[in-house]
Design a protein that fits this description.
Cofactor: pyridoxal 5'-phosphate
Function: Catalyzes the cleavage of L-kynurenine (L-Kyn) and L-3-hydroxykynurenine (L-3OHKyn) into anthranilic acid (AA) and 3-hydroxyanthranilic acid (3-OHAA), respectively.
Keywords: Hydrolase, Pyridine nucleotide biosynthesis, Pyridoxal phosphate
Number of helices: 14
CATH topology of the largest domain: Aspartate Aminotransferase, domain 2
Bound molecules: pyridoxal-5'-phosphate, (2S)-2-amino-4-(2-amino-3-hydroxyphenyl)-4-oxobutanoic acid
Pathway: Cofactor biosynthesis; NAD(+) biosynthesis; quinolinate from L-kynurenine: step 2/3; Amino-acid degradation; L-kynurenine degradation; L-alanine and anthranilate from L-kynurenine: step 1/1
Order of helices and strands: HHEHHEHEHHEHEHEHEEHHEEHEEEH
CATH architecture of the largest domain: 3-Layer(aba) Sandwich
Largest sheet: 7 strands, mixed
Strand order of the largest sheet: 2-8-7-6-5-3-4
Family: Belongs to the kynureninase family.
Distance between the termini: 39 Å
Number of domains: 2
Amino acid sequence: MMTQDQQELDPYSKQYARKLDEQDELAGYRDEFYINPNAIYMDGNSLGLLSKRAEQSLLDVLGAWRTLGIDGWMQGQHPWYYLAEKLAAMSAPLVGASADEVIVTGSTTVNLHQLVTTFYKPQGTRTKILADELNFPSDIYALQSQLKLHGYDPDEHLIRVASRDGRFLQEEDIIAAMTDEVALIVLPSVLYRSGQLLDMKRLTAEAHARGILIGFDGCHSVGSIPHSFSEWDVDFAFWCNYKYLNNGPGGTASLYVNRKHHGTTPGLAGWFGSRKDKQFDMEHQFHQADTAGAFQIGTPNILSMAPLIGSLELFAEATLEKLRQKSLHITRYMMELIEHELSDMGFTLGNPTEDERRGGHVSLEHQDAARICKALKELQHIVPDFRAPNIIRLAPVPLYSTYGDVWETVQRLKITMVDKQYEKFANMRDVVA
Ligand SMILES: Cc1ncc(COP(=O)(O)O)c(C=O)c1O
Ligand SMILES: Nc1c(O)cccc1C(=O)C[C@H](N)C(=O)O
């Protein structure tokens, strides 16, 4: 609902953006983060910013190491032996799971390998894995290598559902590909380029109706969108914590295993998958945990998990519902400004516009996208990212981005285009795009 004040203001003006910021009940969280005052950060969908609380929790854990040495495993504020489980309990509400269905461990790609070695059980003519052609490359490489380990030719056994337009996937096309040759389905929750949010509930129900297990890569949705993994009966999921959850570069990832699968032998076993009370018996017989913790392998990367303690506190306080509400509102605001300010400049909006199909970022397509990104970064001090072949991703993150940031971003993008500043750069991606 627009207030009296908003109605009087030009909705494309800077004052209007300021008004939106004044009315933003999450605005205070920006002060929790380290924000470079000389730049506008629009890349929290790739690497989230450092919060002061995440920094503090990392310092706390370092302090425990400094003062306790080996006893940090069982003593101190956050005993390391239980840290993965403690963080799982804190993350579970973000994915609609019970604490024992989540564990903070490994990396996204390693967790995918773990889950596929566990849940891909080809039998008879059911030997194929179903994915999609827009999936993040690391997932595809993992699936291809898993098929090879089973002696299958990935060209034949990895089905990649085609996109009709190179941007989006149609749920109907995915469902049509769920044949009786498919043993396992792995799909993204939100597509990393277009930001399309797939209907996970529907896809899970359809997969199960055909006797197929299904798992989701939640890298681009966890911390941005509410999930109901357990209610939807998703079999498994995996995600990184360094994007919307602000756990830091390469920070430890997470996985979800539906309770009905607890007790399934992990494909890749290791001693940290043991029952906590049995682990230090040091027996050669594996007594696996009766939780998702069973899918851990070796010693947790404590220092790469510690920032998540502080970071998840912020999510508990702000609440995901409010964060999603702001995310939808601020991305819509950005789309409206783009439409108003940047028409006839060769841009195409490449993300879904409907709220129920949109993730946390805006995806702008342009034939000069690579060099527009360079000009934005170097000359306009806006941090977007580029994804080949022609995408500029812009993520106003509800915890720390302002409506003013969005307004400035679109204005500076306009200057970049009107003054042809991008022509000073080669239209090629950087090494790390
Ligand atoms: C959707 C998706 N899947 C997988 C990965 C790979 O994650 P990692 O390199 O942490 O294993 C990423 C990001 O890098 C991603 O965005
Ligand atoms: N994992 C990354 C990295 O090691 C370097 C730079 C970027 C990343 C990313 O996470 C990219 C991200 N997954 C993407 O959506 O493209």
